[in-house]
Structures are given as structure tokens and as C-alpha cells.
Design brief:
This protein is of the alpha+beta class. It is built from three helices and seven strands.
């Protein structure tokens, strides 16, 4: 397992169209292991492949709410929301968008179609917080950041802050 660098906004790969995964091989398994290690080290509750520079339809999540509980790690390949209903408003942040949290409007309940590491197809229903995490990560593989769900004013303020950081620490 390798700890990978998490890329931050405005890295172009975060905005790219991702590729569908068709090869369910050792290389994919290794990538999932790297993503798990990187997510837990951050620490985070979800990570999408573009965040480590891999423009692929792949996310990992662990929405275990009980800190004492067993890990509920899942890797979802080619995930797609096929059903959605209701509304909820919950606080979000993102490992690729440092120093910003904000309430985001999401669907309350969703059903996701995805494949596992062996290429088998599954459906998963989620609601409340796990549904938020899934919508956030699936956005990532479509080039969307939680920033895009905020008001134009909030987004503009954040962009200004990032520009200032970039001037302070030239890459
Ligand atoms: Ni994120």
C-alpha cells in the first residue's frame, strides 16, 4: 500500500471527465488499497480516484459513525446514482478543498448501481449521512466539487482565498 498525495483545487484533474473501469485486475486492487490507506490517513470518510490524480470512475467510502465499530469500508467501481428522492441539508467538507466547510443541499435517499472489485454488479440504497457522502464522491468522478453547490458569493470568496495562498507560497 502506498500513501498517495491528495490533490487540491484548482488541480485540473479534479475537473476532468473520468474513464469507466473495464479491467478488474491486480492493478485495480492495488489502486483501491492505496486509496484506502490515503483516505484513513487523511483522515476522511470518502475519497474519489481523481483526488489522487487517477481519472477513473472509482470511489472508496467508510461511513462508520461509531468510532468503536468495525470499519465499513467499501470500494465502488463505476458508481452511478439511479434513484433519488427527498432533500437534506448537511455540512460538507472535502480533502481537495482545504479550509472550507459549508451546508450543501442533497437528496435524502439514493440508490447507487456499482461494480465490486471482481466486476460483479450491485445496487446499494443509502439515506441521510451515507447518502451525502456517496453523492459527494460520485460528484468527484463527474468533475464536480462541493464548491459548485454553494452560492456564487461563497465560491468567489473561496477562489480569492486560494489565489492569495498561491501568491504566498509559489509552487
Ligand atoms: Ni471531496
Amino acid at each position: 500500500m502506498t500513501l498517495r498525495k491528495i490533490l487540491e483545487y484548482p488541480a485540473p484533474v479534479l475537473r476532468q471527465e473520468t474513464r469507466r473501469i473495464t479491467a478488474f485486475n491486480e492493478e485495480l486492487k492495488k489502486l483501491v488499497e492505496d486509496m484506502a490507506e490515503t483516505m484513513y490517513a487523511a483522515p476522511g470518510i470518502g475519497l474519489a480516484a481523481p483526488q489522487i490524480g487517477e481519472s477513473l470512475k472509482l470511489i472508496v467510502i467508510d461511513t462508520t459513525s461509531d468510532k468503536e465499530g468495525a470499519r465499513e469500508f467499501m470500494a465502488m467501481i463505476n458508481p452511478e446514482i439511479i434513484e433519488k428522492e427527498g432533500k437534506q441539508l448537511d455540512e460538507e467538507g472535502c480533502l481537495s478543498v482545504p479550509d472550507l466547510t459549508s451546508k450543501v443541499k442533497r437528496f435524502k435517499k439514493i440508490t447507487v448501481a456499482y461494480q465490486d472489485l471482481a466486476g460483479n454488479s450491485h445496487l446499494m440504497a443509502a439515506e441521510d449521512r451515507p447518502a451525502v457522502v456517496l453523492q459527494h464522491e460520485i460528484d468527484h468522478i463527474n468533475g464536480i466539487l462541493f464548491l459548485d453547490h454553494l452560492s456564487a458569493l461563497k465560491r468567489a470568496l473561496y477562489k480569492k482565498k486560494v489565489k492569495k495562498w498561491q501568491q504566498e507560497e509559489p509552487a
